[in-house]
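Weekly sync, protein design subgroup
Attendees: M.S., D.O., the rotation student, P.L. (late)

Item 1: inverse folding check
M.S. brought a backbone from last month's batch and wanted to see whether the design step gives back something sensible before we order anything. D.O. pointed out we never logged the input encoding, so this time it goes straight into the notes. C-alpha cells as presented (388 positions):
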C-alpha cells in the first residue's frame, strides 16, 4: 500500500502525473539501496531478531505519521523514511529464513518465504484501490497495524535467533557440493542478479505509470488495482511452483530466457492492441484482456528471476545477512534506474507514456545483453565468473 499502491493514491488525491510518480519511485529506490546496505550493520549490532522488532515499531510510527499527511511534501518525507527502514528489514528476514540449512532445506524455506511476502503483496495491492477510494486513512493505518502485529510475533519467538549472527557460519554436516554444481550455482546467481534490477525497473516504472495507462482510464480506482494485480498473482504462482521443484537449480540459462521474455511481456502490458491496429477499432475489453494476459507472462518470469537471485545468493553465502543486503540493494537499484530515467523523459515529452515505456525497454534490453555476455563468458570456463 505504501510502496507500489501509493501511486494510485497520489494520482487520485494529488492529481499527480507521470513526472511526479516517476520521481517518487526513483527517490524510493535511492533510499531503499541505502537501507539495504545498512541492514548487515544493524544485524551485527543488535541481532537480527531484536533489530527487526525495533524496525517494525519504527515503521508503525512512520505509517501513523504519514496518515496525518495534509500535503504531498509531508507524505513524501514520511514515505521515504518508511522505505528506508523497510529496506533494512528484508535482509535480516532472508538471513533468518536461510541460515543453518542445507541446499534442499534452504530451497523449501526460501520458497515458503517467497509465497508469504508475494501473496501478501498481491492481495494488498488488489484491494488497495478500494481502500484508497473508501477509507483514505486506511492506506496508512492498515500497514501500521501489520507492523505492530509483526513486532509482537517476533517478540514472542525468542528462540528464532539465539546467537544472532550477522553472517552465520556454514552448518556442520552439510556435504560440500561438487565443483560442477558450484559453477552452475555461480552462473545462476550472476544471471539472476544481472536481471534482478531490470525486474524492479519494471515493477516501479509500471506502478508509477499504471494509473495513467490509457487502458486503465475507463476504470475506477478500485478496478484499476484489481486489474493491475494480475502479475503479482502470477508471480505468486511461479513461487509456488519453483518452491516445490528443484529442476531449475541446475539450469542457470533459463534465467537468460526469462529476461528476454520479461522485455516482451512488459511491452505487451503497456502497449494496447488498439495502439498498433492502425485504422481498425479494437474494443476496450480486448485491450484489457491483452494487458491481463501479458501480466501473467510478466509475473511468471519475474518470479523465476527473483527466486534465483535470493536462493543462489543465500546458498552460496550460507544465508548471510550481507548477501541478503546485496539482493535487496539490487532491487533498489532497479527502482532508481527505471523510474529515474523515465522521469527524465518527462522533461521533454511531458505526459507521454510511450516515452517512459521506451526508456524502460532500453534498460531491460541492456540487462538481457549483459546476461547473454555473462552466459557466454561462463561457457569458456567457470573461472571466468567471480564466486561472490
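Designed sequence read out in the meeting:
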Amino acid at each position: 500500500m505504501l510502496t507500489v499502491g501509493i501511486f494510485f493514491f497520489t494520482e487520485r488525491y494529488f492529481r499527480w502525473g507521470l513526472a511526479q510518480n516517476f520521481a517518487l519511485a526513483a527517490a524510493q529506490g535511492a533510499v531503499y539501496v541505502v537501507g539495504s546496505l545498512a541492514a548487515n550493520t544493524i544485524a551485527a549490532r543488535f541481532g537480527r531478531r531484536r533489530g527487526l522488532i525495533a524496525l517494525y515499531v519504527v515503521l508503525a510510527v512512520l505509517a501513523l505519521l504519514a496518515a496525518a499527511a495534509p500535503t504531498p511534501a509531508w507524505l513524501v518525507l514520511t514515505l521515504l523514511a518508511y522505505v528506508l527502514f523497510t529496506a533494512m528489514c528484508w535482509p535480516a528476514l532472508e538471513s533468518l529464513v536461510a541460515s543453518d540449512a542445507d541446499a534442499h532445506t534452504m530451497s523449501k524455506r526460501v520458497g515458503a518465504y517467497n509465497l508469504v511476502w508475494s501473496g501478501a503483496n498481491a492481495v494488498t495491492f488488489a484491494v488497495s484501490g478500494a481502500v484508497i477510494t473508501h477509507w483514505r486513512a486506511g492506506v496508512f493505518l492498515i500497514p501500521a497495524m501489520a507492523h505492530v502485529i509483526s513486532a509482537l510475533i517476533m517478540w514472542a519467538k525468542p528462540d528464532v535467533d539465539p546467537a544472532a549472527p550477522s553472517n552465520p557460519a556454514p552448518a556442520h554436516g552439510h556435504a560440500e557440493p561438487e565443483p560442477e554444481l558450484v559453477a552452475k550455482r555461480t552462473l545462476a546467481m550472476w544471471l539472476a542478479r544481472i536481471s534482478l534490477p531490470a525486474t524492479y525497473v519494471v515493477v516501479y516504472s509500471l506502478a508509477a505509470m499504471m494509473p495513467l495507462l490509457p487502458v486503465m482510464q475507463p476504470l475506477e480506482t478500485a478496478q484499476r488495482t484489481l486489474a493491475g494485480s494480475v502479475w503479482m498473482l502470477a508471480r505468486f504462482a511461479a513461487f509456488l511452483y519453483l518452491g516445490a521443484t528443484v529442476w531449475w537449480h541446475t539450469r542457470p540459462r533459463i534465467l537468460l530466457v526469462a529476461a528476454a521474455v520479461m522485455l516482451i511481456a512488459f511491452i505487451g502490458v503497456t502497449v494496447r492492441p488498439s495502439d498498433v491496429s492502425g485504422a481498425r477499432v479494437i474494443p476496450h475489453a480486448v485491450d484489457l484482456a491483452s494487458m491481463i494476459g501479458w501480466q501473467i507472462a510478466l509475473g511468471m518470469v519475474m518470479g523465476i528471476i527473483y527466486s534465483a537471485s535470493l536462493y543462489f545468493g543465500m546458498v552460496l553465502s550460507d544465508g548471510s545477512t550481507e548477501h541478503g543486503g546485496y539482493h535487496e540493494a539490487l532491487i533498489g537499484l532497479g527502482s532508481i534506474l527505471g523510474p529515474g530515467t523515465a522521469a527524465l523523459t518527462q522533461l521533454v515529452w511531458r505526459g507521454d507514456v510511450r516515452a517512459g515505456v521506451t526508456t524502460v525497454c532500453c534498460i531491460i534490453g541492456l540487462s538481457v545483453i549483459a546476461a547473454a555476455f555473462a552466459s557466454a563468458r561462463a561457457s569458456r570456463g567457470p573461472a571466468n565468473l567471480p564466486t561472490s
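Discussion: Confidence is low (pLDDT under 50) at residues 164-173. The chain has 13 helices and no strands.
Action: P.L. to compare against the previous round before Friday.
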